[in-house]
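pipeline stage [seq->struct] | target=4Fe-4S dicluster domain-containing protein | organism=Desulfosporosinus lacus DSM 15449 | residues=325
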Amino acid sequence: MAVIDRFVSLFGVPEFVVFHLDRFVSEGEMGLVVGLNGEKCSVSEIVARLNCSLEDAQVLLDACYDKHIVHREELDGELVYFGADFYELLDYVCKFDEGYPLIDKDLRKALDQWCYQVYAERNNSYLDSLINKEVVDRAPEAFLLIEDLDEVLESVSDIRVVPCNCRKLASHCAKPTETCLSFNDSITDRTFGRSLTKEEAKELVKAAHKKGLMHQVNSDWRIKGPTYICNCCSCCCYPLRLAQEKGTKGVFPVSQILVQRDDSKCSHCGACARRCNFGAFYVGEAEVIVKGKRRSKVEFDLTKCWGCGICEEACPAKAISVIAG
């Protein structure tokens, strides 16, 4: 079997990418994955399999580890390496390869569709367990209100920001992409991105808030500490796209609020409708008179509200409020 064919099989490369493989991996990187052959190997074993020097093997391994082409772990006191897959490589490439936006638009669209399907397949059972109230191995996401931001960030010591892989892949909107925050022990030697102070992190989240992005945090953050804050849109965000497909509102992501609108205060300016990610606020067909001027009536459908809370601050008339749900 040719090296490329074996690599495609071992690395889980989708068929439509094969013609474009040189855009993602080099011959040397493919050779390493093929040499590992789905096994966990020490550096000395890799040197023998690749018939190269120890120095060359280590350089290649370090580069492939950074790119998520291989993983490593300690086994019996020795570092061993083993192959990752194309899904993990794509996550790295879309975030940190400056040439990724230059890839053909149709190819990027196909990559997003494929990557989302893989994400859905890997998370469907987790969401089913949440729906069925079964024990799960990690807490689900929860919407974070902007007024709780200070409390979250004051409880962490290390902060790193990286690009949002969802918006980098999907590109369904023009909202900011450098918006994903990792904290403390969730920051690894492959998180990359850049370090932020607490004040810089606060400013970043507030800027994302103004752009209409919702905020999500691990729902057990008050017990186990914050792991991340993601600033999300509903059109690109993989978790929210899957949540809408699965109908997991209130379960994934968790919401702890109920949105209310005081119709007597509403000026029907449409600010909430422009900001709402789920169509809960929308411009209807009816008209109303506000201060002598005719306006299209802004409707509110509570059944479509997911409880992210970003509508409250957008209302100039203070007609929207949130209460504990």
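stage status: PASS
auto-comment: The chain has three domains: 3-98, 105-246, 257-324. The chain is about 40% helix and 20% strand.
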